[in-house]
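Dear colleague,

Thank you for sharing your sequence with our group. We've completed the structure prediction you requested, and as agreed, I am returning the results in plain text so they can be pasted directly into your records. Please verify that the sequence below matches your submission; if there's any discrepancy, let me know and we will rerun it promptly.
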Amino acid sequence: MSAGLLSPSAAGLGGGEAAAQLYDGSGFRLVREPLPALGPGEALVEVELATLCGSDLHTLAGHRSTPLPTVLGHEAVRP
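Please find the predicted structure tokens below.
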């Protein structure tokens, strides 16, 4: 884990259920998100890192209207 990143277990949230939630347009908080129920043909994938895309950066800059709170970052990485 890189310096400055906080793992779910280090934050006291258990493993694999944490999300960085944008809550006021300028700040994030680490929250527990329930794991989704899976339907037929679906799979749950463990993600170690998710990055922000250009659309997320526009949301952070206030150039896109997005209901808050929201979880940004859909560019998933798993080595």
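Summary note from our side: Strands lie at 18-22, 28-32, 49-51, 70-71, 75-77.

Kind regards,
the structure core
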